[in-house]
Amino acid sequence: MSKSESGKPLGKKGYFQAAALKQFWNSLDKSYRRSFTFALTLHLGLLLLLSSSWVSNAEVKPVVAPRHINAVVVNAADIDVLNKKKEQEKKLKEQKRAEELKKKRVAEKKKQEAEKKKRADKKKKEAERKRKLETQKQKELAKKKAAEKKKKEDAKKKALLKKKQEEQKKFKEKKRLEEKKRRDEEAKRAKEKKLKEEREKQEALQRERQEAQLQEMMLKAEQDRQRQIEAQIREQQRLEQLKADQIAEMNEVDRFIALIRAKVTRNWHKPPSAREGMSVTLRFYLFPTGELNRVEIVKSSGSSVYDSSAVSAAKSISRYPVPSDNQIFERNFRKLIMVFVHQED
Question: What angle do CA 114, 117, 121 make, to 5 degrees?
Fold first, then answer.
């Protein structure tokens, strides 16, 4: 038999009450138990505070002894009636107390039965809850196992699918690379062919250009040779013409110089002191009309008389014979140097 906290054994009723309270207490949530303990402590503290306050504030009324006692004479019959009345009242009170106790016991019994039923229902509900929980756990476990199984199967399928996709991807990549390699090789061959054709075309064009350049160079060389020959011919003709012109000019110059010399000699009155072989060099400055601008001695004969007579003879001529060709005049007669040598007649 269980014992209470004071060490006294508990009755059947107390045992069930303690068990019910303990079960009720254990069924409560920890946070609710903490809140209940705190509220209970708070209420007890308030009750203690209020009781101490009520005791301290209660008015103490002094008992006043009566100054005199009124005495009443009671006979025996009245006392019997009063005693009977008191006994009846006592019996009524005991009967009422018994009824109340019975009612209380009945209510207690009903309460215990209700509590018992409640505990049974709670136990049944707890068992049902546990069964449902166990069933739920079993279902969840089965569901979890099924999910894991399905997950494994899905993972296996996914792995197989991934492997198949990778194989297909590798196969496609291999085919793509082979096709790319084939296209690259074809493109390379086409490019090489095109480059070869382009190179051959360029070489043919180069040969054509070279041949054309060679022909052009040959033609140009032939033309240059012809032009050179023609230039040589022209130069030769020019030289021959120049030579002929020079000869003609020299002949013309010599002719006019001879005429001038003869005219000066005719007008020259040589002094008696002149000796054979004496020579004087004179420079004539003539106008295109043949008129004398001036005359000067370039080289003296050593005899001033002889030199003066030669200058006088040159100045005595009003007009000298000169060629009509201005170029011949400018080249030969604009400034004319002549040497006069005395010879015995």
Answer: 135
Tokens of 144: 């979890």
Main-chain phi, psi angles of 339, to 5 degrees: -110, 125
Please, what is the Cα angle at 319 between 318 and 323, to 5 degrees? 170
103-135 confidence digits (pLDDT tens): 888 888 888 888 888 888 888 888 888 888 888
184-195 per-residue burial string, b: 16 or more CB within 10 A, e: under 16? eeeeeeeeeeee
Supply 289's token pair: 């009309």
Which residue has 């999910």 as its token pair? 147
Q: Are 88 and 80 in contact (CB under 8 A)?
A: no
Q: What is the pLDDT of residues 181-191, one digit of tens each?
A: 888 888 888 88
The DSSP result for 4-18, as a single string, is -TTSPBP-HHHHHHH
CA-based nearest residue to 263, from 317, 340, 341: 317
Q: Which two tokens stand for residue 74?
A: 């009671």
Between CA 325 and CA 88 the distance in angstroms is 205
Q: Say how many Å lie between the first and final Cα of the chain, rounded.
A: 208
Q: Are 187 and 179 in contact (CB under 8 A)?
A: no
Query: For the whole prediction, is pTM greater than 0.90?
Result: no
**Amino acid in position 132:** K
Phi, psi (rounded to 5 degrees) for 340: -110, 125
